[in-house]
Amino acid sequence: MSLSQSLLPEFDQEMANTRKTLERVPDEKFSWKPHEKSGSMGWLAGHLGNIPEWAVVTITQDGFDMNPGGKGFQPPPVPKSCKELLELFDKNVAAARAALARASDSDLGKNWSFLNNGVAVFSMPRMACLRTWVMNHNIHHRAQLGVYLRLNDIAVPAIYGPSADESGM
Fold first, then answer.
1. Which one of 46, 52, 78, 111 is least enclosed by Cβ atoms within 10 Å?
2. pTM of this structure
């Protein structure tokens, strides 16, 4: 079995769990923040909506420069509604899944670099980047969003087992 074929079931499960969490974000809470240093619920949800796109960048490009030519990174706009958020997420998940399904073991073994104004901050095999900066990063922020939901008394979905709000998957 190829590396991509072995990763796809996990990718599908994690993206489905992320979608279940994103579906809970109410439009009227997009600006809510748990602390002045925290991002808003809309920003965090939008970040989760964009993370799957990173899989496409990881697989199809040799790297990503966060500060090209010293100009600074322009973050994507925050979605304005849950509907817009889910459309963004679904589009990015479909593109990521397609790119992953096409990737060969050779593709996934090639190094990928994260750059700052042309200087490598880190380089790692694409497969490691997919696991760390796409899958694990997604899981981390999905859990963070679960806390945001809990603090707003919004039911947290069952992910790997029951939640305090749902008895099963």
1. 111
2. 0.94
